[in-house]
Write a structure and sequence with these properties.
Elements: E1 4-8, E2 11-17, E3 24-28, E4 31-34, E5 36-37, E6 42-48, E7 55-60, E8 65-66, E9 82-83, E10 107-110, H1 112-115, H2 121-127, E11 137-140, E12 144-145, E13 158-162, H3 169-181, E14 185-190, E15 210-216, E16 219-222, H4 230-245, E17 251-254, H5 268-280, E18 286-289, E19 311-313, H6 315-326, H7 340-349, E20 356-358, E21 363-365, E22 377-380, H8 384-388, H9 402-414, E23 418-422, H10 441-455, H11 459-462, H12 476-480, H13 488-491, H14 493-508, H15 510-513, E24 520-524, E25 529-534, E26 543-548, E27 553-555, E28 571-576, E29 591-592, E30 595-598, E31 602-608
Parallel strand pairs: 10-11, 10-23, 11-14, 14-17, 17-18, 18-19, 19-22, 22-23
Antiparallel strand pairs: 1-2, 2-6, 3-4, 3-7, 5-6, 7-8, 7-9, 12-13, 15-16, 20-21, 24-25, 25-26, 26-31, 27-30, 28-31, 29-30
Length: 612
């Protein structure tokens, strides 16, 4: 790497960007070695005889000592010494792994600290086997070193150091290697829009890591376009490539890209995509962006003026599903009705808001998505933010009718987007997922106050936001209650069977697997019901997905062309969310000579063919 500590035949070579300083010494076991100044604010040098696992710090201008900004490991946390790591010592077994393309994948968002009771990469590696037949790509929440004993990971301060809380860097490598052996891709959530408030020492090395011209909700914006940005850009581009090259991640999820400010060209996100693909050396990668204003330019081709990323989170679809499942249309859900038309439009067009006025923000929201294939939109009923930001971390399966939950689960997992599950969703976990961040003193009080203020935007929760028992972000109990209980996989076997069968349908049915590539249309059938028709390569390969979020619906007559069977071949029932295996009550044949009957709060997949 252009920065950091590299093991050489006769010692360890160090290089650091510190344009703010005139002298930099590397300190190992009380021994100091001056580094030579280079053009551009860099300092570098070889420490002969340094151990391959040496712990070190940098002394800046004969003043205090600080950890390496590009440290590969911080075994004592952000304020402790850095440790030299030899990334070549790990023995990979995935030489035949070719990566993961976007199309056809089902993502699974994982927080390593709560995915198992142990909260380590080693424990997660063992538990991975249980995700076979549920998903195909793990999306790991951020792991860059952060202050405290627990946290979501979005307050990272040592961008190259996998957090000591989950194990060693080689434990993380072993997790990725094991995932590849089981057929899973793994992408990493990274935060390139801000730096955590505690344990951040970057400004000791340079005053140009941040740009005061831009603002974020979490602190100073990272400087990608202001004076002295060259070292900053190189630092973060190197970091993006580092995760792909040294840890063999199959891509990145980019947090809050609306706060990655860059008025220069090429945009940092475009360069980041180039760096990731170059480091992958031919392996297929996935670059997913979170972007609150829904800027589709991020995933349009570079040759057409876009940034060339692969996919965007679709919050619009989530918001409609949330309202349909809970009946609560408030705060940032207030522009969504949870109506059948919203689901049809989301399936056909991706985002619902593509430039219309969004009353909650009192501004226009979104950009056109025309021409973008459905797989470019990541669809979900739950993610870490949306579970934690509403009803004090309670899961949707605990807040809605089970039939309705099964129906919308089918809509997401059989729909044309790229589905994502949140950990535990597949077995209807009862574990909450609240916001937790282990800060102390004034910072802990400020974070606690901020969370109360955030929850108060929901009228249904405003009265109890300040007294929510056990939900203090800095409380160990808040973190502990978010850990999955693996025993619930057996206890809630019906929910697990539902997800397994839907995953198999998506994988094995050629028309569903095509994600609308041969054509897709939809229509509203009633106040709470709609149909999607997936067109196949031939008429006999068409599929109908019926969704009814309300009471039983009779359609006599049924003047909707999308319901018409292909040729004279009748529709037959291939799958139903009301199968007793999932806890349902059974489903009558939807299409008969007497007309259509669509069971209440259900989903059904129909295929051409005679009833069996």
């Amino acid at each position: 790497m252009p920065v950091g500590a590299e093991i050489m035949a006769n010692g360890v070579h160090f290089r650091v960007w510190a344009p703010k300083r005139r002298r930099v010494n590397v300190v190992i076991d009380g021994r100091e070695t001056p580094l030579e100044e280079e053009p551009g604010g860099y300092f570098s040098g070889l420490v002969r005889g340094a151990a391959k696992d040496a712990r070190y710090r940098f002394r800046l201008d004969r003043d205090h000592v600080y950890p390496d900004p590009a440290s590969r490991w911080q075994p004592q946390g952000p304020d402790g010494p850095s440790q030299v790591v030899d990334p070549t010592q790990f023995r990979w077994t995935d030489a035949s792994w070719s990566g993961v393309p976007l199309r056809g994948q089902v993502l699974y968002e994982m927080h390593v600290g709560t995915f198992t009771q142990e909260g380590t990469w080693r424990a997660a590696s063992v538990a991975l086997e249980k995700l076979r037949g549920i998903c195909s790509v793990i999306e790991m929440m951020p792991v860059a070193e952060f202050a405290g004993d627990f946290g979501w990971g979005y307050d990272g301060v040592n961008f190259f150091a996998p957090t000591r809380l989950y194990g060693t860097p080689d434990d993380l490598r072993a997790f990725v290697d094991r995932a590849h052996a089981l057929g899973f891709g793994v992408i990493l959530d990274v935060v390139y829009n801000h730096v955590g408030p505690s344990g951040n020492h970057l400004t000791q090395f340079s005053d140009t890591y941040f740009n005061p011209r831009h603002k974020t909700d979490w602190g100073p914006a990272i400087n990608y376009d202001g004076e002295g940005n060259q070292g900053t850009r190189e630092f973060f581009l190197t970091n993006a490539g580092y995760w792909i090259g040294e840890f063999r991640f199959d891509g990145l999820r980019l947090d809050a890209t609306q706060c990655i400010f860059d008025d220069s060209r090429p945009h940092i996100l475009q360069e980041l995509g180039h760096r990731v693909r170059a480091e992958a050396q031919g392996r297929a990668t996935i670059l997913v962006a979170e972007n609150e204003p829904q800027e589709t330019n991020l995933i349009r081709p570079i040759e057409g003026g876009g940034y060339g990323l692969d996919a965007l989170w679709n919050d619009d679809l989530h918001h409609s599903a949330y309202v349909a499942l809970t009946g609560q249309s408030e705060a940032y859900f207030s522009d969504h009705c949870g109506s059948p038309q919203e689901f049809v439009s989301a399936a056909k067009h991706g985002y619902l808001f593509q430039g219309q006025v969004y009353s909650w923000q009192k501004a226009r929201r979104g950009t056109p998505a025309r021409g973008l294939a459905p797989e470019h939109f990541v669809t979900f009923l739950e993610n870490h933010d949306q579970v934690a930001n509403t009803a004090f971390g309670r899961r949707l399966s605990q807040r809605t009718h089970p039939g309705r939950m099964r129906a919308l689960t089918a809509f997401v997992l059989l729909g044309p987007g790229t589905p994502m599950l949140f950990q535990g969703q597949e077995f209807a976990s009862s574990a909450d997922f609240s916001y937790f961040a282990h800060h102390t003193g004034d910072l802990a009080a400020a974070v606690r106050k901020g969370r109360i203020e955030f929850m108060s935007q929901f009228p249904s929760m405003a009265a109890t936001a300040a007294s929510a028992h056990g939900d203090d972000p800095d409380a160990w109990a808040t973190f502990s209650k978010c850990k999955l209980d693996d025993r619930e996989r057996e206890k809630n076997a019906q929910a697990l069977a539902l997800h397994r069968d839907l995953f198999a349908l998506r994988r094995d049915d050629p028309t569903v697997h095509a994600q609308g590539a041969h054509g897709l249309d939809g229509a509203v059938l009633g106040a709470s019901a709609f149909v999607l028709r997936f067109f196949g390569e031939r008429d006999t390969a068409d599929r109908l997905l019926l969704i009814n979020l309300g009471p039983r619906l009779r359609l006599v007559p049924s003047p909707e062309p999308l319901l018409a069977p292909p040729g004279r071949i009748p529709w037959s029932l291939a799958w139903s969310s009301e199968d007793p295996r999932y806890g349902g009550g059974g489903m009558p044949w939807p299409d008969t000579e007497e007309g259509w009957t669509i069971c209440g709060e259900s989903a059904a997949l129909l295929i051409p063919g005679s009833p069996t």
